[in-house]
Amino acid sequence: ALAYWKGMPAPEMNASDFSDTGKEYYPEFSDPNEATGIRVVTFDDKTSDIKPFEVKFKNGLWRIPSHYDYPVDGEEQLGKTAASLVGVKRGAVAGESELDFKRLGVVDPLTDDDALKEFSGDRLTLTKGETVLVDLIIGKQIPERNGFYYVRKPDEKLTYVAELEIDLSTKFSDWIEPDLLKLDQNKLRKVDVRDYSVDEQRGAILISDYFELNRKSQSDPWVMEVYDPQTKKQTETITTLKTSELNGIINSLGDLKIAGVRPKPSFISSGLKLSGEVKPSREASQFLQQRGFFFAQSPDRKSLEIFSNQGDLTATTQEGVAYVLRFGAVFTGDEFDIEVGSAKPTEDKKEAESNSKEKDEKSEESKNPEGKNKSRYLFVSVQFDQTALGDSPVKPTPPAEKKKEDEKKPEADKKPEVKKKSDDKAEDKPEAKKDEKAENKEEKPADKKEEKQKETENLDPQKVYEAALAKYETDLKVYQEKVEAGKKEVEKLNKRFADWYYVIDAASFDKLHKSRTELVEVKEPEKKETTEPPKATSKPETKKPESAAPAAKKM
Questions:
Q1: Which of 149, 178, 279, 283 is the most exposed place for a label (fewest CB within 10 A)?
Q2: What is d(CA 503, CA 59) in angstroms, rounded to the nearest whole number?
Q3: pLDDT digit string (tens) for 323-377?
Q4: 64, 177 Cβ separation under 8 angstroms
Q5: How far are the Cα atoms of 105, 153, 334 from residue 158, in angstroms, in the given order?
Q6: With the C-alpha atoms ordered 107, 108, 109, 115, is the resulting torsion angle positive or negative?
Q7: How large is the greatest C-alpha to C-alpha distance in the chain, in angstroms?
Q8: Separation CA 192–CA 16 (nearest Å)
Q9: Residue of 267, 342, 323 whose CA lies nearest to 497
Q10: What is the pTM of this model?
Q11: What are phi and psi of 147, to 5 degrees?
């Protein structure tokens, strides 16, 4: 038994069978960059299912075939996995027959024998096109020997001990860039929230609330501006906001994780790539509705827009990049269901259709009693908001045109000159002159500013104009560069988001989906002020001791 657990061959084993000990499994595989495909097959103890996970190099990108060819961003994970299989050697023999497979955990997970699947190892395969570079079944880790595992080739009965520096993962999030928006929350300047419900029968939107959170710079406090949902006119400005709830929104936007993906058909994605919008059609409408999104008339009745059954949120950065997040249908499932959906498309469609009609309530728990996670579909698109860049530079007026404008000014604009004459008369009075001298002594800095203003006024108007024009041209160039950079970023992001619906967990949705009442801090001091007036009415009671004093003397 000790011989087995220490990875040494037992005495009864035939020594001639161990001639490969110390040799590499795949000596011809020396360059990890050769691999164009990686497949990992594992057995899930919780669901008793086989979980295949594959990554392939297709059309110039690493993609995940099992997840609708979603692009892989975790190139570091790819490199580590491939490099860890270069030069793997056969150590001591740990088992010589199929009878040892269960004990060592090296049963092939692709076996047809359901009774043996729970003893499966992880089957890791590297390929170059159709050529297999490496194919190994990695079993249990040897107790008290970190980095040493029971390993065998699928077509061999001998199991060896092998040293591996590998971290196998079939988690979708480990192979992709999980940060959905890649948004720098320090650059966030505006968050628009529209809370509404969808009347599916009439195709109408009933907006219940519309407000905007904004700040001019990173150091400025957030302010809420409330708008009329129909006219879009501002009705109120609120500065007392709940810091914890507000930070929950900002932090969630900066760290929004992808839990799963679903592909969009080309008749939806093509429009999003070009303009960030979807061209309305019956086919597009039916497909969107399966995930909880709808075409409906905009509140101003001027166009058809995409709405969702749980409102939307738009986060705008200082570069003018506006991320539009539409929250769709909610659904519940295990990890695989969340990542790629049901294995049966028809069942997944029925589930999505039923969920699209369901009014979602915010759950206090993120998991149901069966241990399945609650998640939600998310439709992401990007627009360019030029107002976030600030006002465009204004071109200065040439001196000749400015003179003409001054001459055309109405008499009302010249009234201040009359006031100056009256002031001049006041200067002739001795008292006024004394007061002026006293003020001049105290206001020396102001005098200096006035002198500078007079100096600039006395400069050549043409030179002043030319200096202002040069500054304007510099500022305009910087502004135009910002506009172009913002538009390019929007175009780039729309191409990234256009092909996919995303899935986020319920906790992220709850942090982002906040009502106005949840964000506004109610002031309590106002209630305390109402209790103070009764104290003032108690003052007349101080007269009572005066009537009581004579009575005391009689006593």
A1: 283
A2: 25
A3: 999 999 998 888 888 998 864 333 344 444 444 444 444 443 444 545 578 899 9
A4: no
A5: 13, 8, 36
A6: negative
A7: 130
A8: 75
A9: 323
A10: 0.74
A11: 90, 0
